Amino acid sequence: MEKEIVIRTEELTKRYGKQTAVDRLSLEVTEGEVFGFLGPNGAGKTTTMLMLLGLTEPTSGTVRVCGYDPARDPLKVKELIGYLPENVGFYEDMDARQNLRYIARLNRVPDAVSTGRIDRLLDQVDLAKESDKKVGSYSKGMRQRLGIAEVLVKEPKVLFLDEPTIGLDPDGTNRMLDLIRGLSRKRRMTIFFSSHLLEQVQRISDRIGIMIRGKLVAAGPLAELAQRSLGLEAGESYTLEEIYMKYFKEA
Fold it and tell me: What is the domain count for the chain?
């Protein structure tokens, strides 16, 4: 059975004056897939994500998220997606539960539905015992975990994550990665995430995309990229760092 294409771009381009930030990007991401999006600073990753989220319009080309154009149908797209930026903002004088309740109401989730959902999410991100504390007192790691709960409270179909494990200790990192993987496998949620931590990307990604100087230089399953870039056969060992550096040097 063919999987639904949830994210599709065709010749997607973004220019700022004479500078091309994203150069004719054509990409597909399917339902339930964990797609790791890599590249050095200035490669065009953030600009691409902004176009997928409908926060900036492309210069040319097309983009569809769940079948909708983010620039033309921003409200419809926002109903179907969740976005966790690197630095998450909360109401500091409210506790975790109050913040989640507020977000649920903004997304028109009835209190009768959100109450149980919030309890489950706080437990899932290991904040149930801290839920009555003001968020202003939270550590970076706690805020990151609350951010995951916040984007999941409306049960999105697609989740965009920007450096989701920043500020987490090793145990918290493992929990976060397991949670991301579980959302893909158990809920068929599509995960599009950007990170500089290549070992973590390798651990949970179904496919990888590598952007360099605005161009998508590689995209595919890790084993396929290893064969293509390093000439390795099935069963031979490799790391994502080796693959990434090969493409980086060639570009």
Answer: 1
Using CB atoms within 10 A of its CB, is residue 236 exposed (0-12), middle (13-18) or buried (19+)?
exposed
Q: pTM for the complete prediction?
A: 0.90
Q: Are 98 and 134 in contact (CB under 8 A)?
A: no
Mean of pLDDT over the chain: 91
pLDDT in tens, 76-102: 999 999 998 877 889 999 999 999 999
Q: What is the dihedral of CA 234, 235, 236, 240, to 10 degrees?
A: 80
Q: How far is CA 166 from CA 42, 146, 163, 169, in A?
A: 19, 13, 6, 9
Q: Which domain holds residue 75?
A: 5-250
Question: What count of other Cβ atoms lies within 10 Å of the Cβ of residue 164?
Answer: 28
Q: What CATH number has the domain bearing residue 175?
A: 3.40.50.300
Across-strand partners of 216? 211
Quote the crossing angle between the two packed helices 111-124 and 96-106, to the nearest 10°.
Answer: 130
